[in-house]
Amino acid sequence: MSTHIGAKPGEIAERVLMPGDPLRAKWIAETYLEDAKCYSTVRGMLGFTGRWFGTEVSIQGSGMGMPSASIYAHELINDYGVKALIRVGSCGALSEDLQLRDVIAASGSSTDSNMNRMRFDGLIDYAPVADFGLLRTSVEVAERRGIAMRVGPILAADAFYTDRPDLYDTLADYGVLAVEMESAALYTIAARFKARALTLLTVSDHIKRGEQTTAQEREQTFSQMVEVALDTIIA
Ligand SMILES: O=P(O)(O)O[C@H]1O[C@H](CO)[C@@H](O)[C@H]1O
Ligand SMILES: O=c1cc[nH]c(=O)[nH]1
């Protein structure tokens, strides 16, 4: 057991998908994995291990926001030897030309979080980026599956409800595709501890147009993203 994950040594695969929502983790495990077994229910943050085309893969919920996701990424890598992590999340689109359910691969992640300012004493604006190998593989997988995945930068925000929507407009002007709440921390922690990480997202809502998917859809229907992630993590 680590502090926040109840798995025994060897129960978590070296390849992990990380949705924020633990019930999306359950849905992914039950829908896609062969012989899926739940290894942790600590704090309701469910984790499962099974096989995808014969290769062991784990699915671990990470919660909402960078403090929570950082805990799971840190413990998966340092306590369980995880080598590759793909976040499979929902996001709000900032770019006008994105539609609900579009899939995004986040090449880089800007953030308003203070976590990296603390890490670098406020002296460096560290640029959290995806592992290039995972990113390239995900693009190839999406092409093979006929999924029109967008690749580009996103924002990892501390707050879901912002008082500064004007900043979202500015970020969109600079090519930032969407906002979510974990990717910058995931990329930073993976870099620090020599693991590989990628964030794949499905557009669950459009910030400018006010369009939304339901909670049930966010939990159980983002299958294109999950299939790209599973094929990528075993490649
Ligand atoms: O759907 P998940 O993976 O939780 O991701 C997004 O959804 C949550 C907010 O609704 C945040 O965690 C955000 O990053
Ligand atoms: O973090 C998130 C996730 C989905 N939609 C948003 O607006 N923000």
TrEMBL record:
Its EC number is 2.4.2.3. HAMAP family: Pur_nucleosid_phosp. CDD domains: PNP_EcPNPI-like. Residues 15-229 form the Nucleoside phosphorylase domain. It comes from the Bacteria. Belongs to the PNP/UDP phosphorylase family. It catalyses: uridine + phosphate = alpha-D-ribose 1-phosphate + uracil. This is Uridine phosphorylase. It comes from Plantactinospora endophytica. Keywords: Glycosyltransferase, Transferase. It holds the Pfam family PNP_UDP_1.
